[in-house]
Write a structure and sequence with these properties.
Among the domains are: about 100 residues, no CATH class; about 90 residues, no CATH class; about 60 residues, Muramoyl-pentapeptide Carboxypeptidase, domain 1 (Orthogonal Bundle). It contains 17 helices and six strands. Helix 5 packs across helix 7, helix 8 packs antiparallel against helix 9 and helix 9 packs across helix 10. A hairpin with an 8-residue loop joins strand 5 and strand 6. Strands 4-3-6-5 form a four-stranded antiparallel sheet. The protein has a two-stranded antiparallel sheet with strand order 1-2. By secondary structure, it is mostly helical. The two termini are about 35 Å apart.
């Protein structure tokens, strides 16, 4: 959610859940694809600060005092804080999500993660049911987010959030965003939800079991346990799980509606209909032959669109409003499909039946920039040259495909880039 939640990129092990059975073998990675705003500047092009880090901290403290942060909180938070060049390097060098969706899902919805998710669901069954009853957010979805964000609490991050955010705010590339996050981190400390020593997270400042950024925490975190603190950092995950549910509810979660359903498309399907802007009831889609993977009617859960995350040679999904709600956590299609499919598998659902073009590969960062540039130069404007293959770029690819009498599935593939290069 950089959007509002966290981004990158943890590694760690699954722990024993409170009051529950031990989890299965560890899952070695948190699986939030990096979806930060991307620029095409190189590190050398980014203007350095004209002051040293400690001078910047002193100036920031003045701004924080003016914003109402107490001297005691500032002294405690910044005691011994030094510049962390590693987090700045990682922020500057990260590329947006580059795995193919099938590679991503192979890890996100691995047998170990499914097994651990079922154990987590059992271990926190009472709390999760109560959270579901209050917020009307399906408990398996909360568990799946927990699984992808921190391996069910196994790795919540070990970086000092204050140090990370101060270093990133000091860096001139995206200082305004991180300074806002740092200010809210101080407000969290002033509110007494945790201490500076306990406020640990990812290198980018994402915190706790469900990896909230500070601003998101302040707006959506809840005190489920009733101890007077919204504690998403400790061993007890209940505040974090309830906070994730509160977040999804705020963004419009529809209770008992699926995120999506895998479907089969008719041989004569018009691929221009695979467009997020085109929504129909499942019974309407059925009239043109779109059924679930078993050939049955998809219930009328609500209006839905058709998603082809790997183009016409990959699996197809009928996605509902809850897909967009999950995008508030992270806008990568792969992440949303990963959360949704993991949630389904935790409840015993089937694997994805459609094939994937496994001979293909993902475009690199530079290739995505080149693809967008070439499309725009050819008259198919992607609007932004940002390396993000989102709806605008997909629409441009589709328009280019229509003009070239290709299958208009909007899939930004290496083959499409090769053809654009050949066109000059």
């Amino acid at each position: 959610m950089e959007r509002v939640m966290a981004n990158p990129y943890l590694a760690g092990v699954c722990a024993v859940l409170m009051a529950g059975p031990a989890l299965a073998e560890p899952v070695e990675q948190s699986l939030r694809p990096a979806m930060r705003p991307v620029t095409i500047e190189t590190a050398a092009q980014i203007a350095p600060r004209s002051v040293d880090f400690q001078s910047w901290v002193r100036a920031f403290r003045e701004r924080a005092r003016a914003a109402g942060i107490s001297e005691q909180v500032l002294d405690t938070a910044f005691a011994g804080v030094s510049y962390d060049a590693d987090v700045v390097r990682r922020d500057r060098n990260q590329n947006e999500f580059t795995k193919t969706i099938w590679d991503y899902l192979g890890t996100a919805v691995s047998d170990a993660r499914i097994k651990n998710g079922r154990a987590a669901l059992r271990a926190q069954a009472k709390a999760l049911q109560a959270i579901e009853d209050r917020y009307k957010v399906d408990k398996q979805v909360i568990v799946a987010i927990w699984g992808l964000e921190s391996a069910y609490g196994g790795f919540r991050g070990s970086n000092s959030v204050i140090r990370s955010l101060a270093s990133l705010a000091y860096d001139s590339r995206r200082s305004a965003f991180f300074e806002d996050q740092l200010m809210d981190a101080l407000r969290i400390l002033q509110d007494g939800d945790t201490t500076a020593r306990q406020m640990k997270g990812s290198w980018a400042g994402a915190m706790g079991h469900t990896q909230f950024m500070p601003t998101s925490f302040r707006h959506h975190a809840v005190d489920w346990t009733g101890d007077g603190k919204r504690d998403i950092w400790g061993e007890d995950p209940r505040d974090a799980l309830a906070s994730a549910a509160a977040y999804l509810k705020f963004h419009g979660w529809t209770y008992k509606q699926p995120w999506g359903v895998e479907v089969q498309l008719p041989e004569d399907f018009t691929y221009t209909l695979a467009n997020r802007e085109i929504t129909r009831m499942p019974s309407e889609w059925a009239k043109i032959g779109i059924l679930d993977i078993n050939g049955q009617l998809v219930p009328d859960h609500g209006r839905a669109s058709i998603l082809l995350p790997a183009g016409h040679q990959g699996a197809a999904f009928m996605i509902f409003d809850n897909f967009e709600v999950l995008e508030a956590y992270n806008t990568a299609d792969a992440y949303v499909v990963g959360v949704g499919h993991l949630a389904d598998r935790i409840l015993g659902g089937a694997t994805i039946q459609g094939g994937w073009p496994t001979w293909d590969r993902a475009l690199t960062f530079d290739e995505r920039i080149e693809l967008q540039t070439r499309l725009t130069q050819a008259g198919f404007d992607t609007v932004k040259i940002d390396a993000r293959i989102g709806p605008l770029t997909i629409a441009a690819v589709r328009a280019w495909q229509v003009a070239r009498a290709l299958v208009p599935d909007g899939y930004a593939s290496p083959a499409a880039l090769k053809m654009l290069r050949e066109e000059g």
